[in-house]
From TrEMBL:
This is SDR family NAD(P)-dependent oxidoreductase. Coiled coil: none annotated. Pfam families: adh_short, adh_short_C2. Residues 37-106 are annotated as: Disordered. The lineage of its organism: Bacteria, Bacillati, Actinomycetota, Actinomycetes, Streptosporangiales. SUPFAM superfamilies: NAD(P)-binding Rossmann-fold domains. InterPro entries: Fungal_SecMetab_SDRs (IPR051468), NAD(P)-bd_dom_sf (IPR036291), SDR_fam (IPR002347). Residues 49-60 have a biased composition (Low complexity). CDD domains: SDR_c. One of its GO terms (cellular component) is cytoplasm. One of its GO terms (molecular function) is oxidoreductase activity. It comes from Bailinhaonella thermotolerans. Residues 38-48 have a biased composition (Basic residues).
Length: 499
């Protein structure tokens, strides 16, 4: 039956009385047909809208499917980006200019801005999930600078990602910078590739999971007596990677030193000793605090006073001095780690799924080490002749009590970041009276920590990159040097946020 015959048949049906059973059957069938057509057309419109909007977002560097996770992106030139004091920066707390951005286009369906949460349809040439106003602010702040010539800074976790780019910002603004890392040779190679650190960079190998190494490093710095102007507690353990993830990095640390690099090791650090040899316990600190007696927990070698089984790699990693795991065909990511294909990781773990060693490691790296560094290095901060000294605790929204919709995932990292925030909240006012400005900074969503098999099916990209994260960490220093130091607050997206 063709459409014409069907329509003629429907005309015959219309002549039937309203209560006729055959007419009612046809009416029900016709209604179902209409609803089915509406549903399919609505679905097709949604698909077309999603496809068009997805294609538009993919034209931005931040939303491009070709974007490499955790790699820095070159941003378009920002007005006023040159010079050590950028007076063209928009006011703090502003959304910038809402005028139509250059490039980009208009979304068919509005989205919520990652920063201000307001709806927007205009997409600029760089960010895919920021409204035009917030995009303008964030682009400007990426280029913000300060005159730090003659200053000394210590950045933990400066080998890759946010810490690496914080260190580069400090170096490019004239500071003398010390960075810490578990993989000092790899760090030296990365900084050498940047090409603009020229003799003002020192790299220290250290495992922040070992408090004795932290105390040894602080003791050495105190003995040297050089004043400290900036401390950035950036290093963090979010995911505990499997041993195989470190294979390429471990192999790389065996290669000859990078020419011209200034590299040393904290007392007790095994990374610069023969491959994966457990170091002897360092001497007790000068203040006489005794070294803890031997103890045993899973992942620590019995009979050694808390020394990790393998220093640069996670405790519990077997000795790989003879052979590395079979990682043929795998390529390292931006951080030098080999991919982990497990369906679950630290980020998805809930209470009852986190091992005791990982719990301890998260607290030691994320909270205890920052406390010890600030506590022990305070005399050096106070010894600086500068009017303002800065301590930045790099935090995360996972450690914020005011965060709505808190899930049950990664409780161990949540509690560690909450502890770090409390250090800021408790000590900042006292330190500010002595010219040391302490604050916490959320870096923003930079890395998608969802397990790789799940992440592959999400087809999403984070709204910010490592330069945005580093710029947020650097902002309290820029702000302070412009005469507006902040302390005792949590900064998120360059604004004060609830604890």
């Amino acid at each position: 039956m063709d459409v014409g015959e069907l329509l003629r048949a429907l005309g015959e049906v219309r002549r039937l009385p309203p209560g006729d059973p055959d007419r009612r059957r046809v009416e029900h069938a016709a209604l179902a047909l209409v609803r089915d057509g509406q549903r399919h057309r609505k679905r097709d419109r949604r698909r077309a809208t999603a496809a068009a909007d997805g294609a538009l977002l993919a034209t931005t560097p931040m939303g491009s499917p070709a974007r490499v996770p955790d790699a820095p992106l070159p941003a378009p030139a920002s007005p006023g980006a040159n010079g050590l004091r950028d007076r063209a920066l928009p006011p703090y707390g502003s959304r910038g200019d809402d005028a139509s951005p250059a490039g980009g286009g208009t979304l068919r369906r509005e989205r919520r801005c990652y920063v201000c949460k307001e709806a927007f349809t205009r997409v600029g040439e760089f960010y895919h999930l920021l409204c035009p106003g917030c995009a303008a602010v964030n682009l400007a702040r990426r280029a913000a600078r300060a005159d730090l010539r003659g200053r000394r800074a210590l950045v933990t976790g400066g080998r890759v990602k946010i810490g690496h780019h914080v260190a580069l910002k400090l170096l490019r603004d004239g500071a003398h910078v010390t960075v810490t890392t578990r993989f000092p040779r790899d760090a030296a190679e990365r900084f050498a590739a940047a090409g603009d650190w020229a003799g003002r960079l020192e790299i220290v190998g250290i495992d922040l999971r070992d408090p004795r190494q932290v105390l040894g490093l602080t003791g050495r710095l105190l003995d040297a007596g050089d004043p400290l102007d900036i401390l950035v507690n950036n290093a963090a353990q979010t995911l505990r990677h499997p041993p195989s993830a470190y294979a390429a990095l471990v192999e790389g640390e065996r290669r000859p030193p990078v020419p011209g690099a200034s590299v040393s090791a904290a007392p007790g650090f095994a990374g610069l000793a023969p491959p994966h040899e457990v170091p002897p316990a360092p001497a007790a600190p000068a203040d006489g605090i005794p070294v803890a007696p031997p103890y045993e927990i899973p992942g620590l070698r019995p009979g050694v006073t808390g020394a990790p089984e393998v220093s640069p790699v996670a405790p519990g990693v077997p000795d790989v001095s003879g052979s590395l795991p079979d990682v043929s065909g795998l390529l390292p990511d931006v951080s030098g780690l080999l991919p982990d294909g497990a369906a679950r990781n630290s980020w998805s773990a809930r209470i009852g799924q986190v091992g005791p060693v990982e719990v301890l490691e998260a607290q030691l790296v994320n909270a205890v080490a920052p406390f010890l560094l600030l506590d022990r290095l305070l005399p050096l901060l106070l010894a600086s002749p500068r009017e303002r000294r800065y301590v930045v605790n790099v935090s995360a929204m996972e450690g914020v009590f005011a965060m709505p919709n808190k899930t049950g995932r990664h409780p161990h990292t949540n509690m560690a970041k909450a502890a770090l925030n409390m250090l800021t909240r408790t000590s900042a006012a006292d330190l500010a009276e002595r010219g040391v400005y302490l604050c916490s900074v959320d870096t923003g969503w930079i890395t998608d920590e969802v397990p790789a098999p799940l992440r592959a099916g999400l087809d999403r990209r984070t709204p910010l990159d490592v330069i945005d994260g580093a710029s947020r960490v650097y902002d309290p220093i820029v702000r302070g040097e412009a005469g507006d130091p902040v302390h005792g607050v949590l900064l998120k997206d360059y604004r004060e946020a609830p604890w």
